Amino acid sequence: MQPQSLAMIERLIGFDTVSRNSNLPLIDFVQDYLARHGVTSHRVPSADGAKANLFATIGPAVEGGVVLSGHTDVVPVDGQPWHSDPFKLTEKDGRLYGRGTCDMKSFIAIALALVPEMQQAGLKRPIHFALSYDEELGCVGAPAMIARLTTEIARPAAVIVGEPSSMKPIKAHKGMAVSRTTVIGHEAHSSQMQRGVSAVMTAAGLISFLSEMAAANKQAADPACAFVPPYSTVHVGTVNGGTAVNIISRECSFTWDIRALPGESAGDYLDRFSAHCDRVLPGMRAVAPESAISTEVLAAAPPLADKGGVAQTIAMRLSGCACCGVVPYVTEGGQFQEAGFDVVICGPGSIDQAHQPNEYIAIEQVEACETFMRKLIAELAA
């Protein structure tokens, strides 16, 4: 592991960019760092100006370059039993511990540490940096930046999204839709069930319907499917409702997500759920006309489909892997692909460590990424 990589990882981990916080201090640092090396960068701010994406180009403004894409935000550490300060890099037993070491600041840091080598190599095709915010909240930040990239940089040959894949190329992943469903019923004393509409019990029935959809997918799964699990999943993560045990609940809400296989649409599941809600409502309104069921899509990101292409070829050649895999988690790769870019996922660290207490990246993974990046620099300089 090169000292400059270690120093840059340490620097980026030191920024507390949990998604509820601003990422601007990190963006300021990266922008200043690039400027010191003579690289002009461009911000794409959030609507409220509290966060920003950043993109930059090193090398000539010609087609055929490669985009290195990564998100700057990390998940919270609240309530997790960390053995060290999560925002201070700790090296121990061949591992680097800290929030974001795996997911996914090490990829960004290694690329930034190699900026001087990129400049000295005499690149004939450019390397583009694309750093986003709020990926962990549902790939919220990247679309505005991707829209800018489609018009403001020369058409790249490939986008490499550096999510943790143990430096193995990934050709496909599932799509995602996160929703909140709110049920409004009618309060009454729990001994007079005929006078009320229980929002909690209605919500429980709706959750049961979602469970049935999930079970049907599992039952019909294609054993030849490369994904694990080999079917689209439906999952309810939180439920909140009710006032007291002896009050028929007026309101209950639950959040749920769909992880759809490439080729399937999360929208189809939402439509089926909406149709079921329409069947439930008349019975509720017969008792209390103000009863209601509403569903809001909080976040959505498309799948990454296997389309072959240059990005996969480049990643396999540079990594030494003979094939590409698939993963169940969602990345911004699907958004890049939807905008017409050729995309592959390939980054250091294992997803098994992501979002965990005592998150870490093995130093050998850092070294593998350094090797990958240097091969990429050499290829674009040839």
**SSE order, one letter for each helix or strand:** HHEEEEEHHEHEEEHEEHEHEHEEH
Low-confidence spans: pLDDT under 50, at least 5 residues?
A: none
The secondary-structure class comes to: alpha/beta
User: Ends: how far apart?
Assistant: 25 Å
Shape: elongated
- Total count of strands: 15
Query: Largest beta sheet, briefly?
Result: 6 strands, mixed
> Number of helix segments?
10
Strand order of the largest sheet: 1-2-6-3-7-14
Mean pLDDT: 96
What is the CA-atom radius of gyration, in angstroms? Answer: 23 Å
Portion of residues in helices?
25-40%
Strand fraction: 15-25%
Please describe what this structure looks like.
With 382 residues, the chain is α/β, with parallel strands linked by helices. 35% of the residues lie in helices and 23% in strands. It is built from ten helices and 15 strands. The chain has a six-stranded mixed β-sheet, with helices on both faces. It is elongated. The model has no long low-confidence stretch (mean pLDDT 96).
Quick rundown:
This protein has helices at residues 3-13, 24-36, 101-113, 115-120, 142-152, 199-219, 266-287, 310-319, 333-338, 363-381, and strands at residues 41-45, 52-58, 66-71, 90-92, 95-97, 127-132, 158-161, 170-173, 175-184, 233-241, 251-260, 292-301, 325-327, 343-345, 360-362. The mean pLDDT is 96.
